[in-house]
Amino acid sequence: MLNELANRCHSELTESILPFWMNHSIDSQNGGFWTCLERDGTVFDTRKYVWMNGRQVWMLSRLYRTFDQRAEWLDAARGGAEFLRCHGFDDQGRCWFSLTAEGTPAGYQRKPYGAVFVMLGFLEYSKASGDASYRELALDLFWRIGQYIKEPSLLGRPTLPGAPRLSGLADIYVLCAMALDLLEDDPQNAQHLDVLRACLRQIKFHYHPGRQLFYENAPLDWESAQTPDGRLICPGSIFEINWLLSRALDYLPDEEAWKLLHSTLEGALESGWDTDFGGLYYFLDVEGHSPLQLEWAMKLWWVHVEALYALVNAYSRTHDPKWLEWLDRVQDWVWAHFPDKQFGEWFGYLDRQGQPALTLKGGNYKGCFHIPRALLFALQAIQRSCAR
Amino acid sequence: MLNELANRCHSELTESILPFWMNHSIDSQNGGFWTCLERDGTVFDTRKYVWMNGRQVWMLSRLYRTFDQRAEWLDAARGGAEFLRCHGFDDQGRCWFSLTAEGTPAGYQRKPYGAVFVMLGFLEYSKASGDASYRELALDLFWRIGQYIKEPSLLGRPTLPGAPRLSGLADIYVLCAMALDLLEDDPQNAQHLDVLRACLRQIKFHYHPGRQLFYENAPLDWESAQTPDGRLICPGSIFEINWLLSRALDYLPDEEAWKLLHSTLEGALESGWDTDFGGLYYFLDVEGHSPLQLEWAMKLWWVHVEALYALVNAYSRTHDPKWLEWLDRVQDWVWAHFPDKQFGEWFGYLDRQGQPALTLKGGNYKGCFHIPRALLFALQAIQRSCAR
After folding, report:
1. At a CB cut-off of 8 Å and minimum separation 6, what does A153 contact?
2. Percent of chain A residues topping a pLDDT of 70
3. Cβ distance B13 to B32 under 8 Å?
4. Which of A28, A63, A137, B82 sees the fewest Cβ atoms within 10 Å?
5. Residue B388: its pLDDT value, please?
6. What are the counts of helices (DSSP H) followed by strands (DSSP E) for chain A?
7. What is the pLDDT of residues A54-92, one digit of tens each?
8. Is residue A259 classed exposed, middle or buried when 0-12, 13-18 and 19+ CB atoms within 10 A define those classes?
9. Chain B interface residues (partner A, CB cutoff 8 A)
């Protein structure tokens, strides 16, 4: 079954996903990537979303470096990196959210995530290309992002006395992802190991033992726990942080954290699986209230590919047959519902029943990232596992 | 059929909608209203949303003044108005978005709409109670909101050179709604008539003649027209602005605007009706692209009650049988899908197929407003029409 899955990942990646993005997303005139693409690849919005551009730079560079040294991948990554370096920042070094096709500022968000994916893109591009100047930019961004997370007012977010006090899973995820990519070249770096250590400490506050889940936003006091944000569960975030933190544990073994990862992978699959229509929910309320998110019951591409790779990763590390059973169930649903046989790539947003609710292939939140990353990582994990 | 509809509106209003909100939303200790209510009325978030509180003050005051002088309605409206007056504003007079149950600031939004519904609530409460101090506050807010709309940086929104240049239907709607409520007491007021005049001028830029629709955001240049926001259609907004502008035309007759209202009411019904599952879509792209809004195909309570009242209003003004046919179709779908026979009130968020996707009765965007307002206005329009 795993060999078959590896073959499928390889063919999806090289025959469907990458050709779609290489054919339709590259602005060869200005550099950078369009991500708002119709089902057939037609660009329906020429704005460039900074975080989507950073993600695509990362993806193409990683593919070039670890999968296949195709010059067109590195060239496109360079075009994206140069576009972001030229146009991505305001005069205080903060990242814009969106730009026009030519690079004029079009939107600003008071969140650190744009900067995170520019940082990851720059770092990976420097590894792929050997251009050390992008590593310097990435390192500078890394420390800056740490400050943004500690002090949101640096990005213009007010801190209000009545606001719920919450610790975000997303912040742990991005700090851990950046530190791991930095450690790859420099595995003894004490400062970067400290960041991983803090992430492994922080994740424990997110654990709900009764339900075997990580809260999306760990409430820091009783009142905050009574808010919808303080009760929110996002199975996709749990899958994504699962495989990521398992890599952190390769650097810093921690038996307790390891147990939590296993417990929450199972919990997120059990709570997240829709027993009526199949597939995994987007959001849940830990107390069973109705989530405020209108899209809570929709079936999203990234939630499902993150589950897929988290299960491959868990099985390859433990050989526990329980993960293979889940993998079978998840991949059956994925292959039956997401890929678009006519135009390639996958539909991103299915309704609860599994029909495409949005027919677009990319937008301001879907780009060339989660699908190829999960397919590449799954393929590489299976290959390593077989080579052992 | 219209008499039957009036009876149904009356019983829904007095036996289902109002009892639900009076029983479950009133915080008699602190004043103000909870709006995050489960299907059975249980409060699942004790935060007070400022705009939802302003809307409920408006609704209860309007019911007291024009429908039935129930002391408990005016008392609850007073509790809401006093809570907003005490806690709703920052030290620069800008409205908060959300507060804790006790009134501590919990959230801020850089939009004028919180202030709009506080203004409308204060004004209506002053009419219902005779307390002129609330009229003064409302007038001050009215001019302030006009400034916010002209100069968004007053609320902290940056204006970026690459951002799409768009004129929002919502801005026309709120300016017109406020001016009409002010003119009710003072129908010759030249400044308020000028605001109506500007609204009637501005709406013409939103018209798409080929498709008989008002754009949600009228693009001010060619580039802005190529963005998803510049192509967005929200049938619910077209229904809401339809009946509202028809009232403006009572003050300022304008044959051209009158024709646009008829044309777009028909266009929004034709384009908005889901021929597969019935009901009206939430968002559409005027060129037929996939909207970016994940909820575009969901069926929302407010879109449907606005259609219902817009049709009653259009028929009572024209006696064109075409509106009765549509009214029949819309109300059949409404009565079959939205009311909750078990706990009263209506489900707000149905999936495309018409099943409740969220079981809540109120949230941060659904409160005691659209349903009772449309039922009351429909009832009053039918009564006036029969009395003629």
Report:
1. A159
2. 99
3. no
4. A28
5. 60
6. 14, 14
7. 999 999 999 999 999 999 999 999 999 999 999 999 999
8. exposed
9. 36, 38-39, 44-47, 98-100, 104-108, 156, 158, 160-164, 223, 226-228, 289-292, 294-298, 349, 351-353, 357-360, 363-364
User: Which of A318, A223, A316, A307 has the alpha carbon at shortest distance from A270?
Assistant: A307
A387 has a pLDDT exceeding 70:
no
- Check residue B285 and report its DSSP letter: E
Collapsing DSSP states into helix, strand and coil, what is residue B293?
Answer: coil
Residue ranges in chain B assigned as alpha helix (H): 2-11, 18-24, 50-66, 71-87, 113-129, 132-150, 169-183, 190-203, 222-225, 235-251, 255-272, 301-318, 321-337, 370-387
- Cβ–Cβ < 8 Å for A377, A309: yes
The candidate with the shortest Cα–Cα distance to A117, out of A136, A79, A92, A145, is A145
Q: Do B160 and A359 touch (CB under 8 A)?
A: no
**ipTM score here?**
0.94
pTM of the model: 0.96
Distance (Å) of CA B328 to CA A101, B65, B77, B324, B332: 47, 30, 34, 6, 6
Longest Cα–Cα distance of chain A, Å, equals 55
- Per-chain mean pLDDT for chain A: 97
pLDDT over 80 (residue B387) = no
Q: Are strands B356-358 and B36-37 parallel, antiparallel or unpaired?
A: unpaired
Residue A167 phi, psi dihedral angles, 5° rounding: -110, 125
What does the pLDDT read at residue A21? 98
- Contact B125/B61 with Cβ under 8 angstroms? yes
Number of residues that this document lists for chain B: 388
* Alpha-carbon separation of residue A84 from A47, A104, A229, A369 (angstroms): 13, 11, 33, 17
